[in-house]
Amino acid sequence: MRHYRTVFTCIALFALTAACTTTVPDTRDADIKAVKGLEAAWVQDIATKDVDKFASYYSDDASLLMPNAPIINGKDNIRAALKPMLADPNFALTFQATRADASKGGDFVYTVGAYSLTMTRPDGKTAATDTGKYLTVFKKQADGSWKAVVDMISSDLPARSERPQPRKQRSHRAARARRRARSR
Q: Which of 52, 53, 97, 157 could form a disulfide with 111 if both were Cys (CB 3.0 to 4.6 A apart)?
């Protein structure tokens, strides 16, 4: 009798364990495909230079990390920072992921890739193009949509202090004076 009770208890515990264990379906491939499609649509919307369309891809609590600038937190602050960029007549931004991965739980996807950004130089006369890499983390929202929660770009150009400085033109008089000073 005791043996049957032990066997019954073990079977009941096994059945209870099996019933409580839920298998989460692996949606990683579908999640990555959805986010890559979202990024392609984002690039198309950026081309319209509509700041609201651009900012709509960010979550309300998103963070934007731009080179040589403090972190920009919140969709409204991101929108405000993007507005002057998009007003630039030479503004153009394209990017494409070269790598993407999704969390097993199906709530995060990150993409890594290359970007190209063109804007008017500070002199206001000519355009300059910057190329670099980016990392964007997307989070699945309650409605099933994906929004960028962290977006970071990093330029391939050297920092200003590392850029080669043009050589100063030396006058013949200055060169002659230096030669005389050395010969004394």
A: 97
DSSP 102: E
Is the whole-model pTM more than 0.85? no
Return the bridge partners of 108, or none.
Answer: 139
Half-sphere exposure of 85 (CA within 13 A, CB side): 17
Q: pLDDT below 50 — which residues of the chain? A: none
C-alpha span between 150 and 143 (Å, rounded): 19
Beta strands (DSSP E) in 6-107 are 58-65, 72-73, 92-102
How many other CB atoms sit within 10 Å of the CB of residue 157?
14
Return the pLDDT at 145: 96
115-130 residue pLDDT tens:
999 999 988 889 999 9
∠161-167-173 over CA atoms, to 5°? Answer: 140
Q: What pLDDT score was predicted for residue 26? A: 87
Q: Break the chain into its structural domains and give their ranges.
A: 21-158
For the domain made up of 21-158, give the CATH fold.
Answer: Nuclear Transport Factor 2; Chain: A, (3.10.450)
Query: Cα-flanking dihedrals φ and ψ of residue 110, to 5°?
Result: -120, 150
Query: What are residue 13's phi and psi, to 5 degrees?
Result: -65, -40
